[in-house]
From TrEMBL:
Annotated stretches, region: Disordered: 236-255, 356-384
Methyltransferase found in the keyword field: yes
Name this polypeptide is given: DNA methyltransferase
All copies of domain Type ISP restriction-modification enzyme LLaBIII C-terminal specificity, residue ranges: 14-323
Signal sequence residues: none
Alphabetical GO biological process terms: methylation
Amino acid sequence: MPSVTHDDAPLLADLMPWSVAPLRLGRAWPAAPDPASPKARWDTLLKAEGPDREALFEPTRARTLHSAVGQLPGQSTGTQRLVRAAGPCAEPVRVLAAPFDEQWLLPDHRLIDTARPELWRVADASQVFTVETGDAGTPLLATALLPTLRTGRVRPLYRRPGGTEPNLAPGLLDHLSARLGARPTAPDTLAWILAAARPDLTVPLTDDPGLWASGVELGRRALWLMRRDGERPRLPGGRRPYVRAPLPSRPPGAHYDREEETLHLGEGRISPVPPEAWDYEVAGVRVLEAWFAARTAPGEPGTLAAIRPAAWPQAWTSELLELITVLALLAELRPARAALTVTSPVTAGELRQAGVLPAPDPARRPASVLDHHEEGPEGQFALL
């Protein structure tokens, strides 16, 4: 991991002061790897009545069929209590459910124990969410999707919709501008953070323009791979994972042949799969195995989570091929991150002396971003 010659690197929590605890769904069934399953589960819930509907819902202390809650910001869902709810569900939205695992969630506040509305208010095409993982090799994830994974705190890049008001310590960009001789942008600074962050979530900074540029370029590459938007990534040398033997409709398990660089999914075969992709772990969990298990583990009979695709969708195969590529390319960046040695540091003490740190209390709280009414329980406007 990045090394420094001092022990006074600032904390990520000081550089990006506003953070939010992770969401807590409270029940698994509103989310699924495919968009059709949550809709089918909703329909099944509404067809049930009385105690059957309650059992299917899986009530908790935070949410029952009688809970009265408002809409999630930016989402059009009913606010009627679920005990008498009717009609179609909201369209599922894409979320990051686990490291590198994009799934679909019903964006209904009535179904989510702790939804963190402040994150939904700033989720848009300009936003990037940084998620703490507790993993030494990948201490931070970055995603354009709303993160629902249960890891560490979530730090949005922007405090307001539309990519305005960066979630950076006030005065940090001005101070870096003076030291570097050129003004970094908020995305530049996030890229540096992704490249330089240590496992203890300190982030060494530098005033060396050449080193800064190298770190930013490294972080931009990681950010592009994690966000998985734009042009599809490709392995170098023309290598590309292909389906060598068709996947069965219900793959019974995943097995990796290291010598042949082949991933076996039942009778299906995908290769080449670089060992670095298969071995890629976050917080001690192999990403590819967890991704596959999320799509093949049967739900408990009689529960809504048991409603799943009858056969392996083609879309999952495409996602798997891309994920293999992304993990292999991210693994290639790890040596460069480890070699990033910060000289001519900008220390936490310097930032404190300049008045950049500590960040003022308002910077650690959500910004007031409401420019429209949000519907509260039972169709009434929320008073915020």
